[in-house]
Amino acid sequence: MQNENQLIGVRKLKLKKLIDLGVNPYPGKNKRTYYIKKLRDNQDIFIENSQKVIINGRLKAMRRQGKIGFANISDDSGNIQIFVKRDLVGEDNYEIFKLLDLGDFVQIEGICFVTQKGEYSVKADVVTILGKNLKPLPIVKEKKVDGKIERYDVFSDIELRFRKRYLDLLLNPDVKNTFVIRAKIITEMRNFLDKNGFLEVETPTLQPLYGGANARPFTTHHNTLDIPLYLRIATELYLKRLIVGGFERVYEIGKNFRNEGMDKTHNPEFTLLELYQAFTDLDGMISLTENMISEIAKKISGSEIIDFQGEKISFQKPWSKASMTDLIKEKTGFDASDFNFEKIKAFCKDNDIEIAPNAGAGKLITEIFDRFVEPTLIQPTFVIDFPKEVSPLAKDKPGNPNLVERFELFINGNEYGNAFTELNDPIEQRRRLDAQAKLRELGDVEANVVDEDFIEALEYGMPPTGGLGLGIDRLVMLFTGNTSIKEVILFPTMRPE
After folding, report:
1. Residues 274 and 215 grouped into a single domain
2. CB contact at 8 A, 333 and 324
3. pLDDT tens track for 204-215
4. Considering 7, 91, 181, 240, which has the largest number of Cβ atoms within 10 A of its Cβ?
């Protein structure tokens, strides 16, 4: 059996022969009159009219018998068989056909017909090479079983698939479809927000200060200005500046970067929707979130009920809503609503929950929630009444100084969204951020920094505002049935080989 180097050598020899024949194996210009799907959807018309067609695509299969040959080519829309006969294309052109390999890109001019075996095909008048493939593609075998195509020997090594995503897309149609669905989800998200009066904007990716979330940033340096810059961890503080500036409804869909751990639901680079709406609050964000995701579900899946790994998940409104401490009591029997630090700390110790230095009762309550409640929330659930300690940018809940007006959206045991009634009191915002700064001094590298320009913007006045952040990667996982975030990011972060 030939090894890969020998196969590459054979292909390079064919490349040289093409050049010796005066053929440019990488021409700059090409023609195409139809996509393959158009030919397949209108077979009778193309056969009846003997209409000349020009198609382009990649060779997926080839077989030659003397003076005739067959091949399968595919483009972005489908696959079709081509029939090449030396007497029709001429001896010189047939010689070019003989020098082709699987994976080459070709242009076929000809007419559509049905072979003696009943296969709808394109009968070639001219074969043109558009791009020579030097490395053999992994071979994925197919066979018909009970009228259905079954694939085996597939390109399935997980790490290799992520490192060589171009081969993954080429050889695994389901993977390509995942990213088609991803694009549709983002399109439907934009359509929903645009028709509801939101304006899409862009804010800095490189920031002199990072904020809007509890996370460690990636740091770089600008040589000309001689200053450190940070890849943004959130778009929040810039979008709020726009609310101060007079925009009432804004959103941004963009990349955020967090220098933190990686697992099935976390990648250092991820895509987030953030939106802000003036003159509304947390209830407005709940209504918007329900309406938007339910509409996306209907557009993408055709139903408000989807199947995820055998679990039926319903987006029919209204969704569940419950406070964090009520859910903890429901799942564990432990009542943390009084925020009694010693009692809560004792519960954490008894249940082997790590107690971070300088953590207060609010921080420990969220740790208890993460351990005992989050994995159990399968149907869409708004968890409300978050501790103020872990929510420095949200407005206080009236009547309870320990809580803020915030929700996190949980589906299938994972967090998908985060929303606040936004804090618009500049004096209270400074006090909160100063408290975060003290935590940083004590070693909490994920605590918020004090952004003086943002506080100054609030001092000019920000109206009552609701804000929402929604993880697009996780939403795509949900609608495509994937359990790893790497499956829905085209080029996930990987350790270099």
Report:
1. yes
2. no
3. 999 999 999 889
4. 240
Sign of CA dihedral 459, 461, 466, 468: negative
Q: Which amino acid is it at 72?
A: N
Residue-range definition of the domain harbouring residue 200: 174-319+379-487
- Please report the pLDDT score of residue 133 as a whole number: 95
What is the distance between the alpha carbons of residues 223 and 244, in angstroms, rounded to a whole number? Answer: 32
Q: Which of 65, 132, 71, 75 is nearest to 103 (CA)?
A: 132
Global pTM value: 0.91
Residues 189 and 97 in one domain: no
Q: How many CB atoms lie within 10 A of CB 214?
A: 18
Assigned domain for 370 exists: no
Q: What is the pLDDT of residues 431-477, one digit of tens each?
A: 999 998 888 888 888 888 899 999 999 999 999 999 999 999 999 99
Distance CA 136, CA 138 (A): 7
Same domain, 64 and 116: yes
User: Does 143 score more than 80 pLDDT?
Assistant: no
Report the C-alpha gap between 165 and 81 in whole angstroms: 26
Cα distance between residue 1 and residue 212, in whole Å: 58
Q: Is residue 358 part of a domain?
A: no
